[in-house]
TrEMBL record:
A GO term for molecular function: antiporter activity
Entry keywords, A to Z: Cell membrane, Membrane, Transmembrane, Transmembrane helix, Transport
NCBIfam families according to UniProt: matE
UniProt subcellular location: Cell membrane
CDD domains reported in the protein's UniProt record: MATE_like_8 (cd13134)
Transport found in the keyword field: yes
Keyword check for Transmembrane helix: yes
Coiled-coil zones: none
Record protein name field: MATE family efflux transporter
Record Pfam families: MatE
Annotated TM spans: 14-33, 58-76, 97-120, 132-151, 163-183, 195-215, 240-261, 281-301, 322-348, 354-374, 395-422
């Protein structure tokens, strides 16, 4: 068996999906970057407060992505079999779950903004700014959940361009409104963090409107109607729970872990909060191809199994692993080369800037590990049918190794923010050893309804 597959259609599909999803992601993360840069020029407390508030947004994002990934796995297989009825039923279930999760989180941040933020830091100025942001941005959660669930359904049938259009519109609207509402230009009120929140809320509403118009006027694959989302199929729901609940639990644990990470760094001072926010945001933008490759993989593997071609999965998995490593090396190099240039855009303290530089140097190394193990596990293994393995793996590494050791570094031994940050990101390298063994044993390939693999 050759290391790299010779099927040109495979490469066209992978790179087309990866490219478009990456463009969508870079624009989406560009919204956070524009917030960071503009708020960094407004005040460091505003930047830190919004950074912590966005940890709650990140938790919602992980939960909605978990729901969406379950939708993609089931729907992409249905797409391979051209079973449009199942795709609509899965989308209905996913929409109910996504909106329910968004509603719960919105109630929490609306009713208890100070309490939520006090979990991350004891800096009163940071909590005050973050609470002002949360009271407004929370209203965007329902719009965000609905939009991303619909995009997941479209992605499962290889419709991805609309996501790029949505992200581009969000970026343009957000930047323009940030400029007007944070600083009060052209006669608009200078709302600071509240202006940033209002800008993002407006962009989220317009996003949903665009995707609804697309589904009504343009889409010819799924042909959603409003009635489809009121239909509930008990058998499909049971299948979704079997496949999707481990993904949702895994993403929930990951989102909570990121919140705990921010809490650990947040109690090490405002400089650590600002540096982590900057480094993480830049890393997300540079790593868009990594995350896009995982999404593209899920669609390709799911569609291939659904179309009845399981013999293609092994050579596809071998080729994908090589592509992941190439993406990782490129990502790490880009992050290392641009880190000084990016920091020049921030008006922050010298201490925060020096710490952000150190954090980005660490991430330029761990990016290689992330680019391999994340798509290998969440793209190949999950879409191949073993949706529980990533849940177990993430729980062990994050909750039993990384977070306890980082807490000891920060709270018990009093080590520096840099050493604590290294500890927090160490799992991105360690998981590679697990991913190599898991993927190349091929015991994750199965059809739903068959016994759980032991590998």
């Amino acid at each position: 068996m050759k290391l790299m597959v010779q099927d040109q259609a495979f490469y066209r599909s992978f790179f087309r999906l990866t490219w478009i999803i990456a463009l969508q992601n870079v624009i989406s993360f560009g919204v956070n970057l524009s917030d960071n840069i503009m708020l960094g020029g407004y005040s460091e407390s505003a930047l830190s407060g919004v950074a912590l508030a966005n940890q709650l947004q990140f938790l919602l994002q992980m939960l909605v992505m978990g729901v969406g990934e379950g939708v993609v796995i089931l729907s992409s297989r249905a797409w391979g079999a051209r079973d449009m009825t199942t795709i609509k039923r899965v989308a209905s279930i996913g929409m109910r779950l996504a909106l329910a999760l968004a509603l719960v989180l919105w109630l929490a941040v609306f009713l208890f903004p100070h309490g939520c933020l006090s979990l991350f830091t004891n800096e009163d100025s940071v909590i005050a700014e973050g609470a002002n942001y949360l009271r407004i941005i929370g209203f965007s959660y329902l719009f965000f959940a609905a939009t991303n669930l619909l995009l997941a359904s479209l992605r499962s049938v290889e419709t991805v361009r609309v996501g790029f259009i949505l992200s581009l519109s969000t970026l343009v609207i957000n930047i323009c409104l940030n400029y007007l509402l944070i600083y009060g230009h052209f006669g608009f009120p200078a709302w600071g963090v509240r202006g940033s929140a209002a800008a993002t809320l407006t962009a989220r509403i317009i996003e949903l409107a665009i995707v609804l118009v697309y589904l009504k006027r343009v889409d010819r694959k799924i042909n959603f109607t409003l009635r489809d989302f009121f239909h509930f199929d008990r058998q499909t729901f049971k299948q979704y729970l079997n496949v999707g609940s481990p993904i949702l639990m895994s993403n929930a644990l990951w989102g909570l872990a990121m919140a705990v990470q921010s809490g650990i760094l947040g109690h090490m001072g405002e400089a650590a909060i600002a540096a982590n926010s900057i480094a993480t945001t830049v890393f997300q933008i540079v790593s868009v191809v990594t995350y896009a490759s995982a999404s593209a993989t899920a669609v390709i593997i799911g569609k291939t199994i659904g179309a009845g071609h399981p013999e293609k999965i092994k050579p596809y998995a071998q080729t994908l692993q090589v592509l992941y490593l190439m993406i990782g090396l490129g990502t790490g190099a880009v992050l290392f080369l641009i880190k000084d240039v990016v920091l020049g855009f921030y008006a922050i303290s010298p201490e925060s800037k020096a710490l952000a530089l150190q954090f980005m140097t660490v991430l330029s190394i761990t990016a290689v590990g992330t680019a391999y193990q994340m798509p290998a596990l969440t793209g190949i293994v999950r879409s191949g049918g073993d949706t529980r393995f990533v849940l177990y793996n993430d729980f062990i590494f994050m909750w039993l190794i990384v977070l306890p050791s980082a807490f000891l570094c920060a709270a018990v031994f009093g080590l520096s923010p840099l050493l604590t940050f290294i500890c927090l990101k160490s799992d991105q390298i360690l998981k590679c050893f697990v991913a190599v063994v898991k993927v190349n044993r091929y015991r994750w390939i199965r059809t739903f309804g068959s016994p759980e693999p032991r590998g």
